[in-house]
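Saturday, quiet lab. Running sequence design on the C-alpha cells for the scaffold JK sent over.
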C-alpha cells in the first residue's frame, strides 16, 4: 500500500480491542511504524496521568455522554498536559490547528524563522488530499503542506490525536474505570471556563 494511502486512524483505532484491552500486536507495530521513539513518548504520556481534556458544556452531561460528545458532537474543549516540574508550564494542544505550546514543536519551526525564506513558503506547497476517513492522517494531506508531517509532530499532539481522532473506544479505555489515566472534565460554569484560560491556557 502506498504511504499516501495509509489510513492512520484505522490502524490506531485498533489499539484497543472490543474487550477494552490493549492490542499488543498493534502496539508493537506502531512502535516500529513511527520515528525517533515518538510512539514510546506519546504512549508513556497516555499512561502518565498528566493529560486533561476540559470540555465546555453549558448543560451538565453524564460521563459517557461527555466522552461521546467529543466524537459525535462539536464541543469546545481544551487538551492540556500538566507540568511535570515546579518550573514547567502546562502544555496546551490545539488539534484543530495542529499546534502545541511545547518547546519541541516550536523547535520544528525555528530554523525556518531565522532563514530568508518566509515561514509560509518554507512549510507549504500543494499536495494531494488525504483520505477523508482518516482524521489522524489528515495532517499529511493538508492543502499546501510542504513539511514532513512527522516533523510537525510532538508527543503531546500524537497522544491527544490518538485519544480524539481515532475511535471512542480508545478514549474510553484511557479515561474511564479505576485505572483511568486521562481525565476528561466537564465545565458548566462560564466563570470556571474563563479561569481555565486565564490560569492555564
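Result came back. Writing it out in full:
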Amino acid at each position: 500500500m502506498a504511504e499516501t494511502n495509509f489510513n492512520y486512524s484505522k490502524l490506531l483505532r485498533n489499539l484497543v480491542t472490543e474487550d477494552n484491552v490493549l492490542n499488543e500486536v498493534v502496539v508493537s507495530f506502531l512502535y516500529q511504524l513511527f520515528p525517533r521513539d515518538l510512539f514510546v513518548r506519546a504512549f508513556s504520556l497516555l499512561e502518565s496521568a498528566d493529560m486533561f481534556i476540559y470540555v465546555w458544556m453549558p448543560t451538565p452531561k453524564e460521563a459517557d455522554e461527555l466522552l461521546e460528545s467529543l466524537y459525535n458532537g462539536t464541543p469546545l474543549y481544551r487538551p492540556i498536559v500538566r507540568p511535570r516540574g515546579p518550573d514547567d508550564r502546562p502544555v496546551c494542544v490545539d488539534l484543530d490547528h495542529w499546534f502545541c505550546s511545547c518547546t519541541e514543536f516550536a523547535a520544528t519551526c525555528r530554523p525556518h524563522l531565522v532563514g530568508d525564506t518566509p515561514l509560509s513558503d518554507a512549510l507549504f506547497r500543494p499536495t494531494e488530499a488525504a483520505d477523508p476517513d482518516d482524521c489522524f492522517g489528515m495532517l499529511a494531506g493538508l492543502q499546501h503542506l510542504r513539511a514532513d508531517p512527522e516533523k510537525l509532530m510532538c508527543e503531546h499532539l500524537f497522544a491527544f490525536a490518538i485519544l480524539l481522532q481515532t475511535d471512542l473506544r480508545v478514549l474510553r479505555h484511557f479515561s474511564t474505570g479505576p485505572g483511568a489515566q486521562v481525565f476528561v472534565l466537564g465545565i458548566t460554569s462560564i466563570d470556571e471556563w474563563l479561569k481555565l484560560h486565564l490560569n492555564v491556557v
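Notes for JK: Residues 140-146 have pLDDT under 50 and may be disordered. The beta strands are 51-56, 76-81, 91-94, 99-100, 182-187. Ask whether to fix the surface positions before the next round.
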